[in-house]
Design a protein that fits this description.
The complex is a heterotrimer of chains A (487), B (481) and C (95). Chain A is an alpha/beta fold and 487 residues long. Chain A contains 15 helices and eleven strands. Chain A has a domain of 275 residues: Amidase signature (AS) enzymes (Alpha-Beta Complex). The longest helix of chain A is centred in the C-terminal third of the chain and has 21 residues. Chain B has 15 helices and 15 strands. In chain B, helix 12 packs across helix 15. Classes of the chains: A alpha/beta (487), B alpha+beta (481), C mainly alpha (95). The interface between A and C is large, with 73 and 53 residues.
Chain lengths: 487, 481, 95
Amino acid sequence: MHVHTIAGLLSGMAAGQFSSAEITSDYLQRIASQDQQLNSFITVTEELALTQARAADERRARGEGLKLDGIPLAHKDIFCTQGTKTSCGSRMLDNFIPPYDATVIKALNAAGSVCLGKTNMDEFAMGSSNENSYFGPVRNPWDTDCVPGGSSGGSAAAVAAGLAVAATGTDTGGSIRQPAAFCGLTGLKPTYGRVSRLGMVAFASSLDQGGPLTRTAEDAALLLEVIAGVDPADSTSADRPVPRYSEALAQSLAGLRIGLPQEFFGSGLDAGIGSVINAALKEFEALGAQLVEINLPHANLAIPAYYVIAPAEASTNLSRFDGVRYGYRCEDPTDLEDLYTRSREEGFGDEVKRRILVGTYALSAGYYDAYYRKAQQVRRLIQSDYLNAFKEVDVIMGPTTPNPAWAIGSKESDPVSVYLEDIYTLGVNLAGLPAISVPAGLSDRKPVGLQIIGQHFDESRLLSTAHQFQLATDWHTLTPPGFGGKS
Amino acid sequence: MNWEMVIGLEIHVQLATRSKIFSGSEVAFGGSPNTRASAVDLAMPGMLPVLNEEVVRMGVLFGLGIDAEIGRTSVFDRKNYFYPDLPKGYQISQFEHPIVGNGEVTVVLADGTEKQIGITRAHLEEDAGKSLHEDFHGMSGIDLNRAGTPLLEIVSEPDIRSSEEAIAYLKYIHSLVTYLGISDGNMAEGSMRCDVNLSLRPHGTKEFGTRTEIKNVNSFRFVEKAIAVEYERQLDILEDGGSITQETRLYDADRNETRSMRSKEVANDYRYFPEPDLLPIVIDETFIQRIKDTMPELPRAKRDRFQSEYKLSNYDAAVLAANRTLADYFEGVAATCGDAKLAANWVSVELAALLNRHDVAIEYTPVSAEDLGALIARIKDDTISGKIAKDVFEAMWNGEGTADTIIDARGLRQMSDQGELETMVATVLADNPNQVAQYRAADETKQKKMLGFFVGQVMKASRGQANPGLVNKLLNQKLAG
Amino acid sequence: MTVTTQDIENVATLARLRIAPTEIAEVTDRISSVLQLVDQMQAVDTGDTEPMANPLGEVQRLRADQVTESDQREAFQAIAPAAQDGLYLVPRVID
């Protein structure tokens, strides 16, 4: 019964086929028996989950069921959860128990969802493979020798393996979409500002955005309509009405103009992935959509611009981790400088330190214009490319990643090579656009993700487009061998 | 060589808001440590700043008060450095696009000359917390109650040439911000702090010398002293052929010296960049107009009006107009007693003396403007003399009642009955025949001096209640006899 | 742009990160390769393109000046590495 969807569980509970306590226990048991293979959870909140599940069952019995009542979710360990450790994948926060909830968590709790636990991630969300976690790498349920993607790798692996029905994630440069692609899931990165960042440990403030990792677009819609909306405590959250995404899924694909950026189908693309994507595009054509070749002339600059802007913002966002008020503090500091440098040296992992150094360098006197300012200019050019393209097309499609999931450790000696794997996802964050990755097939027995990029705040269109595709195909129902079995 | 001092001031004004600039924590002085430090103020993970509207309003109000350009699109930046009283590891400040651009103020010096001082900019930022160095087993304690308190940093041009000008400018800004109601101006509690940038150059040259920055000088007197000792220090070095090191210095009031703050010199690369957690502040005409509509009369305008409307001297008008509460008080007294000059005199002399003696700010005076006005009215209608009035005023200060109740209770009504006074004068003259003879023999100049003796005797006889004007008149008549 | 180990040491000082002398060469190498990657953008003429700090052209919302926070010191200091008498403790700060 683990290959459920949120929609399916809600109707099952409504029909009295099972209770939240039952499905929650089932998920907890699966986590207990299977997660050793994956390492997808940092913290399992068994007691909390069962308490929440029973409360949900009671509400439902009283006829007071909430929107997501009794739905067992896993949360990326970047979202602060009151009373539950929030490590952000780092030794720095291994002892950090927040006295508050992130707005996303508050909203999901208020909708009645159940928290199964906190999922593993690249430290401070810096990575595309989940190999940069203080709590060890996460394995891909499709091939446990491979990475699940990152940084929301724990969330993706857990949902793919049926250890949670859906999970939260965050996406700064592809951290929801890429692991969704690697694990055969639907992963939505909303428009920048659509979902509150309050209580989400910041990586790069102008790029970070929370969103759902689910089996289906329908589930993504159900979660998004709960977590989206303006938050007075987040100045960058957008004050716009939240559409009923789950009620707009029926929109037909007939006449949909799909832009295909030539830059996303070039030489860097793995042939297996290329053919899966082409087949998916044919499917869209068959469903009445129209394919239009477009250009995003500055697409190749997304990597350099991103790897200046994200580390620059991160370098100062992470200054607060100084061993003074919370988090890791080195033993017996000899003086103030020793407290700072040793706490940070011991508390942060290598990739985090590298990015702090790069970001500090890019902002430092004499280099600001050549790096930071230049990158912000390039960022505008990249956004303009997208906005120009959207004058002619409704959505843009392409592969989510240039390559399938790679073997754990295979890129360890060359961290920069990992950066290149984000080529198709970074521009979306720089431009602040929404995008969704949907399962489009398998290549060499590994899932392939199709990325659909939409206009600002046009999540409805993305979700309905993905949903229509999922009505016509069954790639999203595939489960990894060894963790699967459809119910 | 003849050296010219060049000074620029950076004044940090604490804005009088209820809550902090980026969080809903209360702004207040002191208090149990860290009880007014919220998750935002403590830079807890995932916490974000939200800008206080009042801070923006106050910034714009100040800009209008110095006729400056208002930054229509103003941007917050991060100023990055590590310090335990700075929880985020950066201060949210404004760098490239401050809320207030170029402006200018005119200050009046003691000799009546006016001096223009340019203001480069004024920007909004958050205050840091405090490090307490009392011994916690060799540790320092960090109190973040003050962290996030809104500040307006006002940066002057290097237009100041003497410590007198510096103080006049500082007092002007103090008076302006309190007038505008954007700060309580309480220097003792750090509501106004001043950094002094000072350099010397040979007279007549245009190029600036190397400057030092003296941090956190927190009273008018200390600013004056710090400038004096730093001037001497730099002068000594330059006269000896040495050169000045550009550095941050601290004024030590106990030793009356400045000394280098080496700890602040370590790798100062603040890596300013636009704060991505906040968006640009766009200030439109409507917002500005709304603020203009609430603009109070400013010190200069008030001083001019006091001169023309009340015929006060330039000096009196300036003294009274410098402080908004004092000015309002004066106008209240003048309105009640109907004599602006007498009111000005009483407020700036008698009231000022008592305030000063008891170390009470005008805001807390125990005698209301109306009560003082009523007292002055009793001088004007000859109920009491000016001298008696001072005693009555002291009694009022001590809470013994209004002028009338005290006058009645003590039976102080002035004796103005001509017949009664004539009898009294006649008695005094009869009792002092020798003095009368001497007086009559003396020339006019000596007579004037001798008259005081007789006045004194009459006053004594009347227990101070005789109307002095009348006594003088009668004595002159009778002595001329 | 080429970076030297000295550059990296300076940046590490600014960022309060200590790099062991045995690692400085490798860290410098890795940072260099990142900078080489990002230097690709130097080839583009960005002219007077206005830098984009935030992807949405929105403006700052303002909060009413109200006190909304209450004292939570106990909860906050329960997770502090070192606190005493309501203060966070750090090795002695020298001004």
